[in-house]
Design a protein that fits this description.
Strand content: over 45%
Shape: elongated
Distance between the termini: 84 Å
Largest sheet: 5 strands, mixed
Structural class: mainly beta
Radius of gyration: 28 Å
Mean pLDDT: 83
Length: 252
Amino acid sequence: DEMMSRKCFTSNAVRIAASALLSFVLRGAAVQAAEVTFSPSPAVAGQPLIATFHSVAFACEDEGQMQVQNLTGNHIQLAVTPANCPILPPGFTEYTASANIGPLAAGTWLVTVVQEGTNVLLDQETVEVRPEPVCEATETSLCLGNGRFEVTGEWTDFEDHQGVAHAAPDDFKGLGNYGVLWFFSEDNPEMVVKVINACSFNGHYWVFLSPASTVEYHITVHDVQTGQRKIYSNALDHVPSLTADTTAFPCD
């Protein structure tokens, strides 16, 4: 009986130790490989937002489960459960788990991911949710500075031909800080326009124009929130220089 008790004790101890080691390895691997991504990017206020957790685990499937566990202020806590097998597979399997956490208000949000049932922190990320753009980007207009500034242009060439500037396609959806304009063909860009938020520095939005054309042009930057406009021009046959207007628009 004593020998049997010792064998049982030893067997239980081995199982407990193995379980603890497995849990430690699993958590360690998950922490090292963990990452949270957000879609769409950039995130926009009022639109659905999906958080996807990428990690590894002792698992048979590549899709786990994740849900919102807590939301306090601008902190969202998600709890994730890997798709584990009843029988231990031979090694780690990459898996993902997704949850809908939007739509959210504009601002900076802290997103933490914990392991379901243990609250072990697996990863944390911040996501910047931008305000809905005020203007709408079109073929002939850029929307910069989180959609607050509309940029349009017109030109006159050496043969007195006239036209409007076209916006080169981008992936910013009217929420970027810079854009490209072309006059004659899409593969021949003429102007890079940047609007920089320097409100914390000097209380203004800055406008930068980097031109690559000697035709006559007039570029209009319109603050659609206040109605204020500024026009930046170049005379025909004049070699323009970089424009750096560091007091272009007041932030208030």
